[in-house]
Design goal:
The chain has about 600 residues and is of the alpha/beta class. About 45% of the residues lie in helices and about 10% in strands.
Length: about 600
């Protein structure tokens, strides 16, 4: 329930003043939106949201055409909707007469949009809510039962319909949301004036496209609030900086450890603050930790492809770790697409007899993209060609495009809840380190991103043994080192089923572990009282995922200690702790370095 008090009576003078401010604000906002178009040929913005809207329209039109081609089925579907609304009318009239009545459609108690009690207690708002839910369920049924469309088109239609349903929810609008209406009346519309100012600022920040703020991006400083673990940059090239972290123990495992983060995000998701830092915890257990911090690429990196990221990234890092520590072997971990790149590197090394990586940890990583989830919506030939055309303009894909795609995976939570909070309630979002990281997007080089989309999402070449890199055909079955393969139960980016299926592609022993929560919270889940989620173990990832899950053993607490026991058992020998910058590689500056500070 909202904490906004009901106003005794409206302040007409304040309402009039705020209405004038709104009108003025709309003018400024429109100018901010249209300004970038004036600099484009023919007044057209390049790529971006217009491409997505066009694809949405084409996809949903295909679904509509399948129903219109069979008038009898279309009439039956229309009749079902009419019957549902007739039931709603009957229920509403009964309630308005002072009698109890069952709702025509139940409301999911987990749906935060309709948590305010007045959505149920007030017959008018209850009618609005149920009308929306009835229409949403009916539309979902149309997509689910459409005949004559292929699986990919149906998947796209389901995805785009979710975007529309999230956008048109009555919870997003003042006049159809009881909480927002009370809030606006209590403030005499001043909330809308504040919200419009933030909307104007966010359009300007997005260069003419709305970039919804999710946190206060001015509240964090590298090395103070985020990316806080002490260390030194000990190597730098065009693609990455290599960070070595300062030890916290007198002895460390002899075999050093390399972390390969995704290149589509910055590495410090694993080092947000001392309480949540996986990197800091690894160091505290006695690991010599090295982390790749990828450059935020621009036009100069246009030709940097997947092989470049392998050679100048992972392999260069292993070379430098050898110089710094004197060790020829490493253990490695890859997170998300960083794990995919690591798997590709291991397959390439296996094909050429390179044996420097002795064990691997994959964190929510896909190597088989058959069940890759909703991001596959964007991976068909037509859309990839459109992305490639867009990248040719500047040599890279803007980071905001990928950030928008991730937000679209959970539109009600990651888009519209902030739209309502910021632009309708007029409240600035609170500082939150995770969302600061999420907003700190990175660009992607044209050559690298195109190779990744085509060889992984579109053609699944890595899993099929058809990927070629450096004139070498890659076969994951040749990778026989021990693998710890972590999935998370509610992952929308690397679904648990997808990670499970990928486990069978390797030639050695794979320890598949399923943590709770999602892509980030399931990974960044520190031990002790702060451990919010448990994890499951169940032996080799074979057979059906459902059967593995049913037989798995559930454990309370963080997966981190279980993982470290797995890692330490492979190479338990310890040596005196290594201090970064005091070996053969001098310090180039303190962690987190310079590349992480590069903004889009």
């Amino acid at each position: 329930m909202s904490d906004v008090p009901k106003p005794a009576s409206p302040d007409l003078e304040a309402i009039s003043r705020n209405a004038a401010a709104l009108a003025e604000g709309f003018g400024r906002m429109s100018a901010s939106y249209l300004a970038p178009l004036d600099s484009k040929p023919n007044g057209r913005a390049s790529g971006g949201q217009s491409d997505e809207m066009g694809e949405m329209t084409r996809t949903l039109t295909k679904v509509a055409e399948t129903w219109m081609s069979d008038p009898q089925r279309a009439m039956q579907a229309q009749a079902q909707l009419g019957q549902a609304f007739m039931s709603l009318w009957t229920s509403t009239l009964t309630r308005m007469q002072g009698n109890a009545a069952e709702p025509a459609i139940p409301t999911d108690p987990k749906d935060k949009r309709f948590a305010d009690p007045e959505w149920s207690s007030n017959p008018v708002f209850d009618f609005i809510k149920q009308s929306y839910l009835i229409t949403a369920r009916w539309a979902e049924g149309l997509v689910e039962n459409a005949e004559g469309i292929d699986a990919h088109t149906r998947h796209k239609a389901e995805f785009y319909l979710r975007q529309l349903l999230a956008a048109y929810s009555p919870s997003n609008f003042v006049m159809t949301n009881p909480e927002l209406l009370r809030h606006t009346l209590a403030e005499n519309g001043e909330n809308l004036v504040r919200g419009l100012k933030m909307l104007e600022e966010d359009i300007q920040a997005g260069g003419g496209e709305l970039r919804v703020r999710q946190t206060d991006v001015t509240a964090f400083t590298f090395g103070v609030d985020v990316a806080v673990t002490p260390g030194e940059v000990v190597y730098r090239n065009d693609l990455m900086e290599l960070i070595q972290y300062a030890p916290k123990t007198e002895t460390v495992l002899k075999r050093p450890f390399l972390i390969v983060p995704p290149w589509i995000n910055k590495f410090y998701i694993l080092d947000l603050n001392p309480a949540k830092s996986l990197i800091g915890w690894m160091v505290s257990q006695g690991l010599t930790v090295f982390v790749i911090s990828w450059v935020n690429p621009d036009e100069r990196h246009r030709e940097k492809d997947f092989e470049s990221y392998m050679r100048e990234g992972i392999e260069a890092a292993i070379d430098q770790i050898g110089i710094a520590t004197g060790e020829t072997e490493v253990s490695a971990a890859g997170y998300c697409v960083g794990g995919t790149l690591l798997a590709v590197t291991m397959a390439a090394q296996a094909a050429t007899g390179n044996t420097r990586i002795k064990s691997t940890t994959f964190l929510t990583t896909q190597v088989d993209f058959t069940h890759a989830g909703d991001l596959k919506v964007f991976a068909d030939e037509e859309q990839i060609q459109a992305i490639e055309e867009r990248m040719k303009e500047r040599g890279y894909l803007d980071g905001s495009r990928m950030a928008s795609a991730f937000n679209m995976l959970r539109p009600s939570d990651l888009i519209w809840s902030y739209v309502v909070n910021n632009y309708v309630k007029g409240k600035a979002p609170l500082p939150f380190d995770l969302l600061y990281w999420n907003a700190d997007s990175t660009r992607m080089p044209e050559a690298n991103h195109s190779f990744y989309l085509r060889n992984c999402y579109l053609n699944n070449n890595l899993a099929k043994g058809k990927m070629v890199l450096g004139n070498v055909k890659l076969d994951l079955k040749k990778v026989k080192v021990p693998i710890f393969n972590l999935a998370t139960r509610e992952d929308h980016i690397a679904p648990a089923l997808s990670v499970f299926e990928g486990s069978s592609k390797f030639g050695g022993k794979v320890d598949y572990v399923l943590a709770g929560s999602g892509h980030i919270a399931g990974v960044v889940n520190p031990p002790g009282k702060k451990a919010k989620y448990g994890f499951r173990t169940g032996g080799p990832a074979k057979g059906r995922f459902e059967d593995w899950l049913a037989a798995a053993t559930e454990h309370e607490g963080s997966w981190w200690p279980y993982w470290f026991s797995w890692l330490e058992a492979q190479a338990p020998e310890r040596v005196p702790a290594r201090v970064p910058g005091e070996g053969a590689l001098p310090s180039l500056g303190p962690a987190p370095g310079t590349y992480v500070r590069m903004k889009c």
